Amino acid sequence: MLSELQEKLNYVSAHRENRLKCAQDVLENPHLFDELVSICFSPEDKNNHKACWILEFVSYEELHWIQPHLDFFCSNLKVLKDESSMRPIAKVVQLLVKSHYKKSENGIQLSEENLQNCIEASFDWLINDTKVATKAYSIRTLYILGNYYDWIHPELKVIIDKDFGDHSPAYKAVAKEVLKKIK
Question: Is the separation of the CB atoms in 123 and 78 below 8 Å?
């Protein structure tokens, strides 16, 4: 028998309104969140990518819900191989890193190991054959992290410069924006 969340995920489609409706269901039923995070990092689950879509939308509203799951979340970033899962999780990583460095008392508190996992995953997504949205989120995340780790900006610049000619206008726009900030 399927769980309540699995039932909901079975009916999720790529349509934004559909994803938002499921995310709203999770927001109204926080007891579903633990299972949602678990499904996000279970690539063998047929609803894995759908769970990632929903986690992204939930994170816009209740990012702090991830705090108790950070070690699991960050250490499992490398298990994601499907593009439909990586893109929304790359966005969540960006949100987490932004929140961590805001330095407010209600910001996300990432451990050094969490941050290292985010750096590693972001570089992997950037240099591997992933779609432009995942790369764009990774570039922006690495830019933020590079303000605190002095070795990141030079590495990021090398990768962007090397790959610049091979990418779409969307990639180039993000790359130019970040390169301008780095220089």
Answer: no
